[in-house]
């Protein structure tokens, strides 16, 4: 993650230098200044241990007197760390509007120790930006616009056996759930997590959940089921507020 402590990306005539982010608070405004649109290129940024990921934010502000500038343009993390954009540009689509584009990069393996993503920074990041109008009106985005930055997760390919299996006999299904540890830059077992075991009968196009299994102290999954028909088994993890959802590759088992 690119975090700068002595500069900000500025679009317009006003400049703001921020060393620390304030605690998240409700948006504030004066007069008729407003952000007519704020869009993120993705709602969730899933970051692993070696490859940087990015998100682009586009914001348009409007005031009848015209916008003198949009400044700030930073993302504030759950631990109040600040991410400033790697790239920023602004334009004036009309005499009353200004449009700014910011690109943010998140990296769990940054050479700068302070810029390196840590586990405590997984979660919701808020856009902090302020539009100022020529008549002294303003609108400040403090918490209403946000993006999820989550730790990347992996599910090992589902294994079910024996194959083939007799109808009504016991089938053992195994798997493993791991996620990126941004503190150590390795994938580690994600413990005590509920993972759904799903089954798709041969000839069907949809899966249904058979049971839910909790990962052990190493992130491993193991359970038994009765084989009623041929089909495909798979594990599905719904994700958490800090970790992405993931679906394992399935294993097809035929009855004999």
Overall description:
By secondary structure, this protein is an all-beta fold. It has no helices and 22 strands. The strands form 4 sheets. Strands 1, 2, 4, 6, 7, 10, 11 and 12 form an 8-stranded mixed β-sheet that branches. Strand 15 (170-181) and strand 16 form a beta hairpin. The chain is elongated and about 80 Å long.
Strand content: over 45%
Q: What's the tally of helices?
A: 0
Mean pLDDT across every amino acid position: 91
CATH third-level topology of the largest domain:
Immunoglobulin-like
Order of helices and strands: EEEEEEEEEEEEEEEEEEEEEE
Instruction: Name the structural class.
Output: mainly beta
What is the CATH-assigned architecture of the largest domain? Sandwich
Overall geometry: elongated
Summarize the amount of helix as a percent range.
under 10%
Rg calculated over all Cα atoms: 24 Å
How far apart the termini lie comes to: 53 Å
Q: In this structure, how is the largest beta sheet organized?
A: 8 strands, mixed
- The strand count comes to 22
- Quaternary structure: single chain
How many structural domains are formed by the residues?
2
CATH homologous group name of the largest domain:
Macroglobulin (MG2) domain
In CATH, what is the class of the largest domain? Mainly Beta
Question: Segments where pLDDT lies below 50 for 5+ residues?
Answer: 1-10, 12-22
What are the salient characteristics of this protein?
Immunoglobulin-like, eight-stranded mixed β-sheet, mainly beta, 256 residues, five-stranded antiparallel β-sheet, 22 strands, disordered N terminus
């Amino acid at each position: 993650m690119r975090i700068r402590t002595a500069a900000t990306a500025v679009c317009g005539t006003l400049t703001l230098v921020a060393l620390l982010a304030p605690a998240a608070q409700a948006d504030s405004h004066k007069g008729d200044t407003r952000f007519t649109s704020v869009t993120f290129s993705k709602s969730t940024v899933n970051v692993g241990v070696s490859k940087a990921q990015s998100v682009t934010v586009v914001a348009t502000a409007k005031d009848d007197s015209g916008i003198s500038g949009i400044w700030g343009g930073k993302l504030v993390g759950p631990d109040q760390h600040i991410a400033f954009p790697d790239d920023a540009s602004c334009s004036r689509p009309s005499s009353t509007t200004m449009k700014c584009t910011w690109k943010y990069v998140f990296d769990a393996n940054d050479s700068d120790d302070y810029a390196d993503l840590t586990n405590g920074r997984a979660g919701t990041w808020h856009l902090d930006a302020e539009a100022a109008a020529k008549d002294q009106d303003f609108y400040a985005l403090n918490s209403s616009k946000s993006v999820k930055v989550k730790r990347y997760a992996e599910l090992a390919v589902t294994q079910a056996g024996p194959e083939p299996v007799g109808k009504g006999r016991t089938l053992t299904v195994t798997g493993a759930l791991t996620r990126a540890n941004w503190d150590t830059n390795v994938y580690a077992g994600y413990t005590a997590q509920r993972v759904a075991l799903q089954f798709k009968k041969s000839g069907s196009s949809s899966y249904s959940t058979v049971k839910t299994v909790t990962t052990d102290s190493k992130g491993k999954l193991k359970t038994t089921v009765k084989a009623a028909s041929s089909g495909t088994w798979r594990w599905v993890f719904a994700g958490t507020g800090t970790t992405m959802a993931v679906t394992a590759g399935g294993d097809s088992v035929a009855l004999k």
